[in-house]
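Lesson 9: reading folded outputs for more than one chain in a single document. The general rule is that every protein is listed as its sequence immediately followed by its structure tokens, and records are never interleaved. Here is the first one.
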Amino acid sequence: MNIFIPLVVGVLVGYLFRNKLRFSMDKPMSVALLLLIFFMGVEAGRVEIDAFKLLIYSLVFASFTILGSLFVALVGVRR
């Protein structure tokens, strides 16, 4: 689905009725955002991954990142 069409239509409607429509969009936007986050969580929960393998890769990557940062810090201190 193309998201730019509703976005452009919304901008045009807002521009055309900018002085005529006066109501707060805070609550509808909050509800829409919470629903979006909820459905993103539902979709993320449906994805099947091997969590243990991903955990190991993440720990190895984090370890190498820490070691690399320490190495650069030690090389920088000596000069």
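And here is the second record, again sequence then tokens.
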Amino acid sequence: PWRDRQVGPPVTGTVGEPVSLPCRMSGSPEPYLSWILPNGKVVRRGTAVPGGLTIETNGSLYLPNPSLRDGGHYRCTAVNHYGRDGLSVQLILNSQEPRTDAIRLETHEDVGL
């Protein structure tokens, strides 16, 4: 039977910094795992995907260098001869903010006596 009602906790990351979306599935026989991206494209193990997205050995989807457009809802699906299961995960990406401690402005005023 198909069950895709599970929703994982949202994952928050930063643009340009690697992030992994968890998906731990188990079954016997071992299920075939894939991820459906927010744009509808499907990522399978061993498939080359622009941007370097890969499925890790534990089932997590690894995004090495995410951009703002990578944010959204992802769906992990597992299928074997006995059924299907799925998990939805929302990726929230924050833009990198300039470091405020990297800039320091000093002012000097002459004081007359």
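What the second record shows: The chain has one domain: 2-93.
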